[in-house]
Design goal:
The structure holds 2 protein chains of 2 kinds. By secondary structure, chain A is α/β, with parallel strands linked by helices. Chain A has 7 helices and 8 strands. Chain A has an 8-stranded parallel β-sheet with strand order 5-4-3-2-1-6-7-8. In chain A, helix 5 packs parallel to helix 6. By secondary structure, chain B is an alpha+beta fold. The longest helix of chain B is centred in the middle third of the chain and has 21 residues. Chain B is globular, with a radius of gyration of 16 Å. The model of chain B has no long low-confidence stretch (mean pLDDT 91). Classes of the chains: A alpha/beta, B alpha+beta. Chains A and B meet through loops of A and helix 3 of B.
């Protein structure tokens, strides 16, 4: 069944029971930064990380999505899948083989057409990452982006109509509400 | 406990018919029972070989194609083993590998390149 929510776990380590987030919908991991649960999807664009993930028990049931060049090299590994061609990559100036894995995860979340994207452990301290997040959010006005952070609440996405920031407490409330 | 999980065939190859059976229309086959017999034996042999090689599920496509038989594999390792063991059986695989993309639900096709150390995909 298609759900309205999707969670993107970014490049930063997360201290939150992500198993709970799976109650809201699919969870996408960004490379091997987090190995806490069996994620539905994980994006990876470096060979070293992919090899690590292929040999990690926690990624055994995860769909590992890689750019085409890397996919061709690991095509016979059952868990490895080719990343789809994301529309508008050139306009974002994003090279899927060189960008961060959290950007790939974000683009995958948008590609899967979920209504609300939760961003957990998403690194926006890097201005390039923040700009890319904002560009993707602007290009997808029908999707809402909720950035989850530890208190104090950040205001980095407040200039976006479809982006807002909130704390893990709010995220937990949403999960609890979905559980009922 | 037996797992009740649907089988997804991710990999697909086309194995060419023996040379004399290729590109024969159904009309011609009606008048050539010898070819039909050879093709049936070929199918049986494929099935037996796959049973030896494959550790996971496989399927020989029932659809008739003039050039060959389409094979489906659940596991990439089985598919790889089948490709590299061709010299043992003197069969000819069409050098194309189709892979089902679970995210886009598209069948992507890549070229199989034979190298001295194995096969690579281009």
């Amino acid at each position: 069944m298609k759900t309205a929510y999707i969670t993107v776990v970014g490049n930063l380590p997360v201290r939150f029971d992500m198993e709970q987030a799976r109650r809201l919908g699919p969870v996408i991991a960004s490379a091997n930064s987090n190995k806490s649960i069996t994620f539905d999807y994980a994006t990876v664009n470096t060979e070293t990380n992919l090899q690590d993930m292929l040999n990690s028990a926690s990624f055994r049931g995860t769909e590992l999505l890689t750019p085409e060049r890397l996919f061709k090299k690991y095509v016979f590994f059952d868990g490895v899948t080719c990343l789809p061609e994301f529309p508008g990559l050139k306009s974002y100036d994003i090279d899927p083989e060189r960008c961060s894995s959290q950007t790939l995860s974000l683009m995958l979340a948008v590609y899967l057409r979920q209504t609300i994207v939760f961003l957990v452990g998403y690194d926006i301290s890097n201005p390039v990452e923040l700009t890319r997040l904002k560009s993707i959010a602007l290009a997808n006005p029908q999707t809402k982006f909720m950035y989850i952070c530890n208190p104090p609440r950040t205001h980095q996405l407040d200039d976006l109509d479809n982006g807002f920031c909130d704390t893990f407490i709010k995220f937990q409330e949403l999960i609890d509400r979905a559980r009922k | 406990m037996q797992e009740n999980k649907a089988v997804v065939y991710k990999y697909s190859l086309k194995l060419m018919w023996p040379a004399m059976c290729r590109n024969r229309s159904v009309e011609i086959l009606k008048h050539r029972p010898d070819l039909v017999d050879q093709m049936n034996k070929f199918r049986t042999k494929i099935d037996n070989v796959l049973k030896i090689i494959c550790r996971r599920h496989f399927q020989v496509d029932g659809t008739y194609m003039m050039s060959g038989v389409r094979l489906w594999f659940e596991s990439g390792q089985d598919c790889y083993d089948f490709i590299i063991r061709q010299p043992e059986f003197e069969w000819e695989i069409q050098p194309e590998l189709s892979v089902m993309n679970s995210v886009t639900s598209q069948l992507q096709t890549f070229d199989i390149v034979y190298t001295p150390t194995g096969v690579t995909i281009d």
